[in-house]
Design brief:
Layout lengths: L2 H14 L7 E6 L6 H12 L7 E6 L5 H7 L6 E4 L16 H6 L4 E4 L2 H6 L4 H13 L3 E6 L3 H5 L4 H11 L12 E4 L13 H19 L1 H4 L4 E4 L7 H5 L6 E4 L6 H10 L2
Parallel strand pairs: 1-2, 1-8, 2-3, 3-4, 4-5, 5-6, 6-7, 7-8
The structure holds 1,3-dihydroxyacetonephosphate.
1,3-dihydroxyacetonephosphate (13P) binds next to strand 8.
């Protein structure tokens, strides 16, 4: 069976609802933005919002505000996580945060391998694979980011690159544990640029990743790993992107910083 045929089968299964790719995720990555006052007023606004039951609503603030999330979201549906963590229990790692410390504040997700970590802080797939593995062992859901730069996209040279990021990043996880990984496809050229990947580009790439996951890890695992899209998602484009085949949610930067825009995005997905 060639890739085209497999894609056709998956598309049919998706349309017929047979392929339960799991739940839908709306994740806000706040990066290094906001002060204490702004965090509190954001949380005050979203706390009373009636988010769709089925969707996972996750916010990933800077570490310094995790305590506010723990304090204020105890009875809320909103979950939260960390933007990074170091894959050791504890130790002399100045400037790092361990998964234990993240768990201490109730964090249940961790972004691993965001392109800003890869490119600005030189994190490679080998370190990232340790981070993914540490998350899984400690019951934190890793949101493992992959994505090509503009050059690779323009040269149509991104497929093998995405495969190698997944293979290497997930190399220390196996069997059923792989089902606890979340993948976020974030093309670097779409991050913070205002230029999102088109629904057709998202669909093509997500289906390609899905096919790869099924071929590499088998049906049972390959079909259930959620694949989120990230890159200039906003209220105006979220619906058309959500309708692209193979999208299990979004990782949102800029548009997640404002409570009204975050709520609007969620309302569109209701
Ligand atoms: P923007 O939504 O601001 O493009 O950022 C995407 C991102 O990097 C989320 O992790």
């Amino acid at each position: 069976m060639d890739v085209k045929e497999i894609r056709e089968i998956i598309r049919k299964e998706l349309v017929e609802g047979i392929l339960q790719t799991q739940d839908f995720y709306v994740v806000g990555n706040w990066k290094m933005y906001k002060n204490k006052h702004e965090v509190i007023s954001f949380l005050d606004k979203v706390i009373s919002h009636d988010f769709k039951e089925k969707n996972h609503i996750v916010i990933i603030p800077p570490f310094s505000y995790l305590y506010l999330f723990e304090e204020r979201l105890r009875y809320s549906k909103i979950e939260y996580g960390v933007q990074n963590l170091y894959p050791k229990d504890e130790g002399a790692y100045t400037g790092e945060i361990s998964y234990r410390q993240a768990l201490d504040f109730g964090a249940r997700y961790a972004i691993v391998g965001h392109s800003e970590r890869r490119n600005i802080f030189n994190e490679d797939n080998s370190l990232l694979s340790e981070k993914v593995s540490a998350c899984i062992k400690n019951n934190i859901k890793p949101i493992f980011c992959i994505g090509e730069d503009l050059n690779k996209r323009q040269n149509n040279d991104y497929h093998d690159f995405l495969i190698s990021q997944i293979r290497e990043g997930l190399s220390l996880v196996s069997g059923k544990d792989l089902q606890r990984v979340i993948i976020a496809y974030e093309p670097i050229w779409a991050i913070g640029t205002g230029v999102n990947a088109t629904p057709a580009q998202v669909e093509e790439t997500h289906m390609f990743i899905r096919n790869f996951l099924i071929q590499e890890y088998g049906d049972e695992t390959g079909k259930v790993i959620p694949i989120l899209y990230g890159g200039s998602v906003k209220p105006a484009n979220v619906l058309e992107l959500a309708l692209a085949d193979g999208v299990s949610g979004f990782l949102i930067g800029g548009a997640s910083l404002d409570a009204d825009s975050f709520i609007e995005i969620n309302n569109k997905l209701n």
